[in-house]
Design brief:
269 residues, 26% helix, alpha+beta, 4 helices, metalloaminopeptidase activity, 14 strands, protease, four-stranded antiparallel sheet, Creatine Amidinohydrolase, Pept_M24A_MAP1, globular
Length: 269
Amino acid sequence: MIELKTPDEIKAMRPAGKFVGDILKNLRESTHPGTNLLEIDDYVRRRIEERKGAVSCYVDYAPDFGTGPFAHYICASVNDAVLHGVPYDYTLKNGDLLSLDLAITVDGWVGDSAISFIVGEQKDPEDLRLIKTTVDALRAGISQAVPGNRLGDVSAAIGDVAHEQGYTVNLEFGGHGVGHIMHGDPHVANDGKAHHGYKLRSGLVIAIEPWFLRTTDEIVQDQRDGWTLRSADGSRGAHTEHTIAITDDGPIILTRRDEDDAAIPDNAR
C-alpha cells in the first residue's frame, strides 16, 4: 500500500536521512587502500549504538531475495558486486570500486542512501564514467519527482541517462517507498515509460537508486554468502541512491550529503 506523509511526518524523517548521509560522507572521506570491509561495518555499528533512537534496518533483515537474515550494518559491494554486498574480511586495494548502501531507522523513520567511489588514487576512466552515470541518472530521476508527474517519468529519466551512455538496465531491483519500513510501495524501476504509472502526489517518500553494470545487465547471487549480487560477466558496477520526499515546493533530498553531494537537481531542496 502506498502511504503519503504529512509535512510534519516528512520533517520527522529528516534526522534519519541526515544521520545516514553524514555516515556515508564520513566513510567516503576515511576509506582508503588498507581499509578492511569489516572495519567499515564496525564503524557503522558503533555510530548506530551511540545514537539514541537509531536502529539498523539491515541486521536480521530476511526478505525473500536473500538467504537467511542479514547479519551486518551496511552493504559493502566491491568491483563486480553491486548490490547487497556482505562485508567480509577483505582489505581494500588502490583502484577498487566500492559501493556502500546504508539504511537506518531513527525514532521510527527510515533513511536510505548509497554511494559509489574509487578507493585510492588509481582511477579507471571507465569506472568514473559508470559512477557519474548513476549520479546523473539519480539527478534526472529526482528532477521528475514532482506532483502531477507519473512514476514512469522518474523511471524513464533514469533509463534515458543510462542508455545515452551505452549501458543496459536491469529491472529486478530498483527504488522503493520509504517510511516506517525500509522497503515499501511503490517500486521505482530504473527504466520505464514516461507518462505511465502511479500519479505522483505531495507526501510520497521514495528511495531512487540507479545502479548499472559496465557491460551487462545480468546479475548472479554469490552462493558463498547468499546475498551479494554480482555482474554475470565480472564487469564492475556502481550504485547511487537518495531518499526523497515529493512536495508541492519541489523534491526534498532527505539523505543529502551537503558539499559531498553531486546528485541534487535545480528543482530540489
